[in-house]
Design goal:
The complex is a heterodimer.
Chain A (H helix, E strand, L loop, with lengths): L2 H12 L4 H5 L3 H28 L9 E5 L8 E5 L6 E6 L5 E5 L10 E3 L4 E4 L4 E4 L5 E3 L8 E7 L2 E6 L6
Chain B lengths: L3 H8 L2 H33 L6 H18 L14
Helix pairs in contact in B: 2-3
Classes of the chains: A alpha+beta, B mainly alpha.
Chain lengths: 169, 84
């Protein structure tokens, strides 16, 4: 096929005479499109891995003062933000007397979660997700992961939080 | 040049239909697995489990290469090259 013929063919392919030819997608093109999507997903996976290894999320450094024990009644909660960060946290005073601190963002779609007093459950009102207030684990609903947790340190009457260390590992 | 392929295709015109359908079926299967891998990788990355990310990426890469190589078998059609 000469160069001129080739040009003519391409011209016809880009601007077909018949409407049907211009709107239909052939299975051949669909197969190529699926391969393109496949390549996109591969690049996406690569970006997720690269982001996790090259730009890891900032961890909480050191201990941060939240409030005094008397400021937070049994079954009560208190929202706080650590200096230099915009992530909202809640401090929960469980009915058993223990303190727990969690990120206030639901792991499903980042809605603000709240503690239901007397139930031991942290609840997300958007899609009825429930977390265990003791461990942060998912009890019910769509959230795929446990709530990120901070470790609560009591120093006398003052409550501090620091990065959570997984004691099981 | 041998006319074997051409005459085969003319004798069994449905064969290309089956080949193309199978090809698309396998590509859809690959893409589904890749979506699952990406979903798992994202969830684990947000949960700070890094060990799964590289294997998920390698799996996704292999699936893409399989799909890309698969395109080699994409039939050109029975009558496209009949002019020559």
């Amino acid at each position: 096929m000469s160069k001129e013929d080739n040009l003519k063919e391409n011209w016809k392919k880009d601007f077909p005479y018949k409407k049907q030819e211009s709107t239909q997608v052939s299975r051949r093109d669909f197969a190529k499109f699926l391969t393109l999507v496949s390549g996109g997903l591969m690049v996406g996976s690569g970006l997720v891995a690269a982001k996790a290894y090259l730009l890891p999320a900032d961890e909480v450094v050191g201990e941060h003062f939240v409030c005094d024990v008397k400021d937070i009644p049994l079954g009560g909660t208190r929202g706080f933000v650590i200096e230099g960060s915009s992530i909202p946290y809640i401090l929960v005073h469980l009915e058993s007397g223990m303190f727990r601190a969690f990120e206030q963002k639901c792991t499903h779609l980042s809605c603000a979660v709240y503690y239901k007093p007397g139930t031991g459950i942290i609840h997300c009102p958007c899609h009825e997700g429930s977390f265990d207030a003791l461990t942060g684990d998912v009890i019910a609903g769509p959230p795929p992961r446990a709530l990120p947790q901070l470790e609560v340190v009591l120093k006398g009457e003052k409550i501090f939080v620091k990065a959570f260390e997984n004691k099981a590992s | 040049m041998s006319t074997f392929r051409k005459s085969q295709n003319q004798a069994n015109p449905n064969k290309l239909n089956v080949i193309l359908s199978t090809l698309i079926f396998v590509l859809i299967l690959n893409v589904s697995i890749q979506i699952w891998l990406l979903y798992a990788a994202l969830n684990n990355a947000l949960d700070n489990n890094k060990e799964i990310l590289i294997p998920a990426f390698i799996g996704s890469l292999i699936l893409f290469l399989i799909g890309f190589g698969w395109l080699y078998y994409l039939p050109k059609g029975n009558f496209r090259n009949n002019k020559t």
